[in-house]
Amino acid sequence: EAGVTQFPSHSVIEKGQTVTLRCDPISGHDNLYWYRRVMGKEIKFLLHFVKESKQDESGMPNNRFLAERTGGTYSTLKVQPAELEDSGVYFCASSQTWTSGVFGDTQYFGPGTRLTVL
Amino acid sequence: QKEVEQNSGPLSVPEGAIASLNCTYSDRGSQSFFWYRQYSGKSPELIMFIYSNGDKEDGRFTAQLNKASQYVSLLIRDSQPSDSATYLCAVPNFNKFYFGSGTKLNVKP
Q1: Contact criterion met (CB < 8 Å) for A42 and B92
Q2: Closest residue of B to A41, CA-based?
Q3: CA distances from B34 to A88, B28, B64 (A)
Q4: For A58-79, what is each residue's pLDDT tens digit?
Q5: Contacts A–B by Cβ distance under 8 A
Q6: What is the pLDDT of residue A72?
Q7: DSSP readout, A45-86?
């Protein structure tokens, strides 16, 4: 079974440009999450999809970030326009279930996309 | 105060020794705790999770949880050079995981 895949693995762009990151979750996983790790900091939650619906986007830093998951399969995260502080590693994760309880469900992570904004 | 705290290390242990990785968390209502291992440039990979106070063993790995002290640890017995990686402690709150900054472990041959 293929794991979570992300594309591209690296992206270097100029400030003000647009970048789109893609995540393909594990087949059959309804839940898809985006996280980000900026230099020297911990991995932080951005948002959660259940199928094609945004369940929680409380971690999105501002309206320059737009996430979509059309059809409930793969997801894209667009940054427009990119700023220097957006540099970091963007991780995608998926889980089969979401019990909506405090226990949490095991999330399986992709390798991340390293974004560098110059 | 951070939700989840870990010593960033590096923690260096000789091959064959026990490596002890520690994590504290701030939310007293937290119920489950996950340990991930991440090699440089790779996906965080689930090692194990623990719900109940006490110890949980899986092969060379043992997770220990003390909810009263808000403390969770991961012990790696018979450490191998291939265990050298960053170990991430994650604490879920409903749909989102809160991560520590990770502890870098070096196992010296």
Answers
A1: no
A2: B101
A3: 23, 16, 11
A4: 999 999 999 999 888 999 999 9
A5: 72
A6: 84
A7: EEEEEETTEEEE-TT--STTEEEE-GGGS-EEEEESS--GGG
